[in-house]
Amino acid sequence: MSQYKTKVLGTGMCVPERVVTNVDLEKTIETNDQWIYERTGIRERRICKTIGGEFPSDLAYSATLQALEAANMQPNDIDMILFASVTPDMKLPNTASILQTKLGIENQCACLDIAAACSGFVYGTNMAHAMIQTGMAKTVLVVGSEMLSQEIDWTDRRICILFGDGCGVALYGRSEDNSAILATCLGADGTGKEFFQQPVGGAVTPLTKEHILNREHFMQMKGTEMFKVATRTLAKNAKKVIADAGMSLSDVDWVIPHQANYRIIETTAKLLGIPMDQVVVNIDKYGNTSAATVPMAFHEAVADGRIKRGQIVLFDAFGAGLTHGATLLRY
Ligand SMILES: CC(C)(COP(=O)(O)OP(=O)(O)OC[C@H]1O[C@@H](n2cnc3c(N)ncnc32)[C@H](O)[C@@H]1OP(=O)(O)O)[C@@H](O)C(=O)NCCC(=O)NCCS
What does pTM read for this prediction? Predict the structure, then answer.
């Protein structure tokens, strides 16, 4: 079997223009900026327009053009699209194939959506690596793009303050230099499904008028339970991939954690003994954008020059499912 190395060729991101601050939310629900900021680290989030086209595939289109430009490649160079999202454009067809058409790709590349919630981008990255490593694909686009604003009850202060919309992408390909994905891990614990779920609207409980009137069709979360499992799992997976790569925590230059809550990120960093100035945090600007948080934070840190070629970068994510995963790479 072929054994190619996998490299990040380019990154991109796109967020909607509309900014909703904590102070804006004070006008519609009983909350305040101080409560939200102290408990979560969030100051504001971006929200998609529902009229005029700012849907997950649109955000992904703009972000992908940036990644292609950074990689000096054309859309037809992509031979697989993995689109991680819990808020796809529609049920059928998958959003990866919608994006393929928007990009004008004519090579009939494989298109797959990944439903792994906040771990979706890391799932996509590790799957892209497997495809590239074995020679089954040469250039894989991995997208994390979400429009969570549609699935949130904006009258429920326990949940609406946490989430936002956005998209981040990474283009992966064969490496002929030092850059490489060094270790990966993926997992899930299905027994924790009731900690974060959206049971209404699927095959088991089809959506009815009553569900909508009773506001039962939105995402439901047990915040405290999620908080506890998240920190434990993030720290465990980080240690696993570092050990699997034959490295130690001091070898890691940058941690890109899922941005669910600043306190989760800080607690995980403490458990790992990694200083916060090596952890990329942008939750203050965007809130939790599920599958998009890791690629957005990664892109921002690459674009502003914090992350440099040759440095060791750790992706670490956790989400509904309860899915989780990590990637260690030399950028
Ligand atoms: C949601 C979260 C911020 C709640 O923080 P917390 O410190 O646990 O707060 P609690 O839920 O215990 O609520 C404390 C009080 O604040 C109130 N409160 C809840 N939301 C509020 C808001 N937006 N504004 C003001 N008060 C609020 C609660 O009603 C409660 O009041 P009570 O004591 O009178 O009942 C926190 O649990 C969290 O971030 N969890 C992780 C969730 C997550 O990110 N999941 C996704 C992972 S992929």
Answer: 0.96
